[in-house]
TrEMBL record:
Coiled-coil spans in chain: none
Domain PID as annotated: residue spans: 1-95
Source organism of the structure: Nothoprocta pentlandii
One cellular component term from this protein's GO annotations in UniProt: postsynaptic density
InterPro entries reported for this sequence: PH-like_dom_sf (IPR011993), PTB/PI_dom (IPR006020)
UniProt-listed SUPFAM superfamilies: PH domain-like
High-level lineage: Eukaryota, Metazoa, Chordata, Craniata, Vertebrata
One of the Pfam families matching this protein, by short name: PID
Protein name according to UniProt: SH2D5 protein
Length: 97
C-alpha cells in the first residue's frame, strides 16, 4: 500500500539515513493508504494502481538515490528525483505491505 510522499531535499541521504529512518517511523501508523502494485525491473520502479494496469508513478534507476526496507514495520521507501526536476529536489515515497 502506498502511504505517501514527502519532500526530502533537505536530507543528505548518505549522511542522514538515521533522520530519514525517524521520519519513516513517525509515518508507520498513518491511516491514509492506497493499494498499489510495485513492479521492479533493471530499468527502474513502476507503481500501478490496485488493478495492476493504471500507471501512477515511474522512476528510472538513475533517479533513485536511496532505498530502505524496515522489515519490523513492513515499510519500503525510496528517495528519488522526479522527472524534469532539479537534482536537488528530492522526494521520499513510502509503502507498507
Amino acid at each position: 500500500q502506498y502511504v505517501g510522499s514527502f519532500a526530502a531535499d533537505e536530507l543528505d541521504v548518505q549522511r542522514d539515513a538515521a533522520l530519514l529512518d525517524e521520519r519513516l517511523r513517525t509515518l508507520q501508523d498513518c491511516p491514509r493508504r492506497r493499494s498499489v502494485v510495485l513492479k521492479f525491473s533493471l530499468q527502474g520502479l513502476k507503481v500501478y494502481g490496485a488493478d495492476g494496469e493504471t500507471l501512477l508513478m515511474a522512476h528510472a534507476l538513475r533517479r533513485i538515490l536511496y532505498s530502505t526496507w524496515r522489515s519490523a514495520e513492513g515499510q519500503f521507501a525510496f528517495v528519488a528525483r522526479n522527472p524534469r526536476s532539479p537534482a536537488t529536489k528530492l522526494f521520499c515515497h513510502l509503502f507498507v505491505g
